Amino acid sequence: MSARRPSIVLITMAVILVAAAAVVRLVVAPNATKLPADTDQTVHYAGETTMLDVKALRSGDTAHVLRSGIPVTADRRVRVTSTHGDTAVIEDTMTVRAGEQSSPSSKTYAVDRASRKGVPPPASTSAENSRGALSSAFPPDAEQDDSYTYYDATTRSIVPVRYTGTARREGREVNVYEIEVSAPVKDPAVSKPLPTALPKRLFASLVPALDAKTRARLTPTVLAALPDPVPLTYLGQSTLVAYVDQRTGIAVDQTVSRRTVATTSVDGAPTPLLPVSVVTLQVTPESVQDLGDKATSAGRILTALTVLAPLAMVAVAAVLLLATFMLSRRRRAADEVTL
C-alpha cells in the first residue's frame, strides 16, 4: 500500500491542477474582462469647429453668422463611479475648448460590466436610457459584425453600429466600427443655448447664405407664408469611427464629427437650413500611443489568464500523470523480478 502512495499523491495533484485550470479559464478570466470598478480614463482629442456667432445673427450680419476653422481641443473622461454586482455606473464627461470658451457635457450610464451594454440603473440612480446599447466602451473580444447598437445622448436615440473591417493601430489588430446618427436634438444642454425662433425679416436675410436646394424651396411665396417669428428646431448629425482593439475592447483611435443643424417646417416638411455647430475631432497621437500601450498590457494579462496559465497547469498535470504511469510500470517490473 505504501508503494502506491506516491502515485496517489501525483494523481491527486494532477486532478487539482486540471480543476484549477478550469477555474482560471472559466471563472477568473471572465471576471478579469469585466469593467474594473476603478476605471478612470481620460482621452485627449484635437480638431476644429464651426460656431454660430449669436451677436452677428442678432445684428443681421449674415456674412459673419458662422465662424469656421476654429481650432479646438477636447478631453473625454470615462470613470466608474460605483458598481452594483454586474452593473457599473459610468460618468462620461466631454469638455470641448475653443479659444477661451469651454463647453463641458457630462452623462451618466448604467452598463453591464461584461457586455458594456446599457442596463436599468440601480435604485436612486439617474442615468441615460441606453438599455441594450453601447455608450462609452466596447467589450473585449468584440464581435466582428453589425450586431451592436449605440446610444447617442444628443438625440437620445439608439442607432446601428456598422462593422467595416480590420486595421492596425500601435502594432495592435483593431476592429473598425462606424456609427452614423441623424435625429432631432433632444438633449436640453445642446438645444437650450440656441434660438427657438427668428424674426421673419432676419430669417429672410439668411436665405442667400443657404445651399442651392434650400434656397430653391424658400421662394418668395413660401417665405411670405411662414409665421413671424419663424420657429426653429435642430437636427443632430454625428459620424463616429472607432478603432477597437480586438483583444481588450479598448478604442485605440477614434474620429468624431458632430453637426447641429437648424431646421424649420416648410409646407409641413422639415427643411434643413444651416449648421449652427460643427465639430470634428480625432484622438491625439499621444493618446493613441497611451491607449495602445494600455491595450498591450491588458492583452498580455488576458492572454496569460485565458491561455498561458490554463495550458501550463494542464501541461504540469500531464507530466504528473506520466510520472505516475512510469512509477506504475517500475513497480510492476519490480514485482515480476521478485516473483
Please give a handful of descriptors for the protein shown.
339 residues, alpha+beta, 2 domains, ten-stranded antiparallel sheet, two-stranded antiparallel sheet, 33% helix, elongated
Care to describe what's here?
By secondary structure, the protein is α+β, with helices and mostly antiparallel strands. It is built from seven helices and twelve strands. It has helices at 5-32, 54-59, 188-191, 200-206, 212-217, 220-225, 285-338, and strands at 40-52, 66-84, 87-98, 101-112, 149-152, 157-169, 172-184, 197-198, 230-231, 233-245, 251-266, 269-283. A hairpin with a 2-residue loop joins strand 11 and strand 12. Helix 1 (5-32) packs antiparallel against helix 7 (285-338). The radius of gyration is 30 Å and the shape is elongated. The mean pLDDT is 86.
Q: What does the largest sheet look like?
A: 10 strands, antiparallel
Structural class: alpha+beta
H/E topology pattern:
HEHEEEEEEHEHHHEEEEH
Number of strands: 12
Radius of gyration: 30 Å
Give the percentage of residues in beta strands.
Answer: 35-45%
Low-pLDDT windows of residues: none
Mean pLDDT level: 86
> What fraction, in percent, of the residue positions are helical?
25-40%
How many individual helices? Answer: 7
- Whole-number total of structural domains: 2
Distance between the termini: 18 Å
Question: Concise description?
Answer:
This protein has about 350 residues and is α+β, with helices and mostly antiparallel strands. Helices cover about 35% and strands about 40% of the residues.
Itemize the secondary structure elements and their pairings.
Layout: H1 5-32, E1 40-52, H2 54-59, E2 66-84, E3 87-98, E4 101-112, E5 149-152, E6 157-169, E7 172-184, H3 188-191, E8 197-198, H4 200-206, H5 212-217, H6 220-225, E9 230-231, E10 233-245, E11 251-266, E12 269-283, H7 285-338
Helix pairs in contact: 1-7
